[in-house]
Amino acid sequence: MTGVEIRQAVLEILERIAPDEDLSDLDDAVAFREQMELDSMDFLDIVMELRKGYRVQIPEEDYHNLNTMQSTVDYLTPKMKDVPVAG
Amino acid sequence: MSRWLADCCACRSATSGSGYHSFRAIARVNVDDGPHWEKSTVHYDTVIIGAGMSGLSAGVRLAYYEKNVCILERHTTIGGLNSFYRLRKRNYDVGLHAVTNYAEPGSKGGPLSKLLRQLRMKWEDFDLRPQLHSSIAFPDCTLRFTNDFAYLLEQVAMAFPKQIDGFNRLVRTIADHDALNLDKRQATSARQVLSEHISDPLLIDMLFCPLMFYGSATPRDMDFSQFVIMFKSIFHEGFGRPFDGIRMILKKLVRHFKALGGHLKLRAGVSEIVQRGGKAKAVVLDDGTEITTDNVLSSAGAAETMRLVDPTRPMVRPKAGDISFVESISVLDCEPASLGHHDTIVFYNDADSFHYERPNEPVDLRSGIICSPNNFDYSRPLEDGRMRITALAEPDYWIDLPEEEYQQRKMEWNDRIIESALKHIPDFRSHVIDTDVFSPRTIRRFTGHLNGCVYGAPEKFANGQTPVGNLYLCGTDQGFLGIVGAMLSGITIANRYLLK
Question: What class is the A3-20+29-80 domain?
Fold first, then answer.
């Protein structure tokens, strides 16, 4: 998957986790938490949805990389480069 | 042969053309022990005991993340402390007066919104409609409240002008208290904290009354964390109810769970949790079937669960609770509102002070809860009018009564409970077209909780752990309260231990 495709995948996960949030003008450089109501349970879900949908393992010490959309995509790009888009 | 066993045998013949030996191989269990020859062919990641709110919610989480999970329920239907039944062609709810933690659809951040997100369910799935208004009625003083907290503040300021500053301080203390921290819990007396802010014992009792009635496993006082959870869920967030009652939420949960691939077995009571070397390995059902599993999550209660591990275990620790209730349910030929009764719930107390404890008599007639399920903000009327009146009961009296006397005593006390509640509501007795009553005996029968206790053990196990590795607790004895609390309890424990 390319960075653009990974961004789309993360966006779909966020929509699934937090359907009440409007993600249309999400700023990729700003922390998710500052733009939407996300608690630690929701963060765990991002990690688990990635595991479920794309078989990506994210160790706990790497969770800080999921702070913004940009940092998430940067972190996931090498991990997901061989993952097919269908997921 | 139970239906479960029938399923089990069908699946056995389907998986194996060569009969018993290959079945044994599939079963991954030790089958040396003679009579227990019926083994499940499926090994589960997690077996959940109890298909109530907490077990079903935990099941949804695990199934969503592709865990192989099975919920075992002793009864013929889902639900536990919150359930439903049909009697003489009418639907009844057990447990539920109202769902606490009400929030407007679409609102963010509260327990209900967290819950829906975690379950991947929609606001419409719960279909909650808000209460109209409720009251706390004590001798010479009534406080009314709605789902708008500002209204309660006004009421307190009006009825207790000298206490309002202290009450506001209490509200700030509550807001600052992290009641959901599962690990660093210190038992703090809520009465002690309240007395630091409020000097009038009447106001203290009036605040305790609804919170205790709707969630205290301990008599007379509550742990402050429990008090905070209840205070927020009732006064800050408030009451709601689905038009179709609790069955609607339970059925949605089950449908969701099954659609995600979860297994639900009814009529499958667990009689033993098999442990080896301090780890739970399997559960044995009432009919002898053994099911192997990596983890067990039990909503059966702390004391009740540990007795499944060791049936010879004395009942002393952990201690089972003994706060239980009798409820009188009257079906009316009219809406309560047509008789002039508009309150959703009335918490009443007629004594000089409020006594929340196991009574010495069969029923404590001095206080109670009057719930009118009709009095929610519905767009159309319910099928019939209802008045439910609930009062503290002495469990042993009801559990020990001989069967022939039991029915008669229920009706006698039903009449006395209604009579004592009439100080607070219009006399509806000439409109009653049907009556049902439940007692601690009913609760014990349908939930398996010793003493028919409703809010579980006095001691809570917030982190869900037991002395047995990979055996965890959820539900009332884990300690989140109410319907939303029960569901969050299952979710929290599943997230913490079972999704690795």
Answer: mainly alpha
**Preceding omega of B381 cis (within 30 degrees of 0):** no
Which residues does chain A have within 8 Å of residue B66's beta carbon, measured at their own beta carbons?
52
Over residues B377-395, mean pLDDT: 96
Residues near A2 by Cβ (< 8 Å), separated by ≥ 6? A77
- Chain B segment 64-123 residues within 8 A of A by beta carbon are 65-66, 106, 108-109, 113-114, 117-118, 120, 122
Instruction: Tell me the nearest-neighbour CA distance from B116 into chain A, angstroms.
Output: 9
- CATH 3.40.50.1980 assigned to domain B42-82+247-319+461-498? The reply is no
Nearest by Cα to B126 from B117, B134, B137: B117
Tens-place pLDDT, residues A42-87: 999 999 999 999 999 999 999 999 999 999 999 999 999 988 886 4
Determine whether the interchain pair B495/A44 forms a contact, defined as Cβ–Cβ distance below 8 Å: yes
Which residue's entry shows tokens 């299952």?
B490
Nearest Cα of chain B lies from the Cα of A37 at a distance, in angstroms, of: 7
CA distances from B439 to B21, B58, B257, B326 (A): 49, 29, 31, 4
Query: Do A44 and B114 count as a contact with CB atoms less than 8 A apart?
Result: no
Domain ranges of chain B: 42-82+247-319+461-498, 119-245+321-451
CATH architecture of residue range(s) B119-245+321-451: Alpha-Beta Complex (3.90)
pLDDT, tens only, B216-236: 989 999 999 889 999 999 999
Higher pLDDT, B129 or B20: B129
Tell me, yes or no, if A41 comes closer than 8 A to chain B by beta carbon.
yes
